[in-house]
Structures are given as C-alpha cells and as structure tokens.
Amino acid sequence: MAGLHVRSVLVTGANRGLGLGFVQHFLKMPNPPQWIFAGCRDPKGQRAQELQNLASKHPNIIIIQLEVSDPTSIKAAAAKVGEHLGGSGLNLLINNAGMAKPKKLEEETLEDLTETYTTNTVGPLLMGQAFLPLLKKAAQGSPGSGLSCSKAAIVNISSIAGSITSFIGWESVQCVSYRCSKAALNMLSKCQSLAYKEHGILCVALHPGWVQTDMGSSVGQVPPLTVDDSVQGMLKVLSSLSEKNTGAYLDWEGNVILW
Residue 76's closest CA among 18, 37, 49? Predict the structure, then answer.
C-alpha cells in the first residue's frame, strides 16, 4: 500500500462488509486520507453503528447519506462532498454498494432484475457522472502525467460472477440478475475508462474474491476469504495500477479476469 497516497476517497456501502473494511484499512495507512467519505443508505440506523463508532473517533471520516439507486440522493451527496473538499477534488471513488438476490433463472422477475441492475450498474454510472467534476479537479491538481489511483480513479467493485467466459459457480448458485448486473458493470467500467481517460481519470473493475460478508455468505456456504484479506489485496492492486491498466477487469490479487 506504500504506493497509494490519496487526499480524499469516497466509499459507497461503507456501513458494513467490504465498504466498512475499506474505511478501516484507509485509517491504518501510514498517511491516511485527509477525507474519508463513507456513503451509506441510513447513517443513523442500527446497521451503521460500527461506522458511527469509527467516525466518532476519527474526524477525517465524514458519513454521507447516500442511496445509489436514487439520483437525487447522489446529487445531494456530491454537493456535500464538494463542500467539505473546498477547492480540491476527489482522488478516489470506490463504487462498492451492491445487492444480490440468489434466484434461479425461472424465478427471476422484472422487479428483481430492475432493482439489482439499478443498484449494481446504474448506481455506479450515476455516481461517475455526479462526481466527475470533483475527479477532474483532483486529476488537474495532481503533478505529473499518466494515470493512477493516487491521482484520480473510479474503482467499480465487480465480481467474477459477471465474467461470461469463466462463469464460475453456476451449479451452486445461478443468481441470474446479479450476474447480468455485474457483466453490465464490467462494460460500464470499460466505457468509463475510454470516456474519462482524457480527463486523467483511471477506471477499473475489481473482483474482491468470494468474501465472508452478508452477501457472500447468503448462498449457504462459508466463503474462503476474509474482508481484511480481500481489502488488503485490493488496496495493494490499486497502488500498482497505471494508465496501462485503465479499463481492466482484475481480481483482488491483480490477476486479469476474462470478460
């Protein structure tokens, strides 16, 4: 993680699981970010208690009310983040918030697919649009050429479940709406990398592994990876990325995943 130096980072879905893990690991850095914006749906709710406790001890954590499926909420969050940052930009946007409904193909409904797609794919699209001015500002304010996560980046937390080539785990869990939403997120990540490269913003899709979170454990099996190991691995990967990696689809160890 020695190569990752960010002044500001925003993590969505930061009240639990991987999102909370990111916040905790950013705090442990030798030079923690000046601003850690922790986005969550219900900042005052019971499910955000651990995040609230962290924020009470660390003034650099700013909890932001954020519902990634709601354009109004996203715009309000961008305005609040901009106020805190003053004249500086946002270095790192981690689109982590996601959902899954582990259903078989014949059980999928319009409502399930729409809800999952809105959270997992449309949310990161709208987040990228809303925070683009702040990301551009960070890129412009960073010295040197090239792209990096220390300069300005969008990191979309994807899944190997979105890989059409690999198609892992079909026998144990079909989870069709989730797979479709993550395949679409991978395409979005590629589109963002092409559109935002000229602004100095790196974009990547990252598979965190099969992790011991509420979502990861929802299929009735114990995942092999802890949140700590996953987040530590992902941050190590992010610290090493450059312009040659923008638009890539990688796992938490930096391996390229087939589309």
Answer: 37
CA-to-CA distance for 121 and 126, rounded, in angstroms? 9
pLDDT in tens, 24-81: 999 999 999 999 999 999 999 999 999 999 999 999 999 999 999 999 999 999 999 9
pTM: 0.94
- Gyration radius of the chain's alpha carbons: 17
Distance separating alpha carbons of residues 203 and 188, to the nearest angstrom: 10
CA quadruple 66, 200, 147, 59: dihedral positive or negative?
Answer: negative
Structure tokens at 117: 């797609």
Which helix H or strand E contains 76, and what residues bound it? helix 71-85
* Residue 140 phi, psi (nearest 5): -65, -30
In angstroms, the Cα distances linking 219 to 125, 135, 223 are 27, 36, 9
Residue 18: partners with Cβ closer than 8 Å, 6 or more residues away: 96, 157, 208, 211, 213, 227, 230, 231
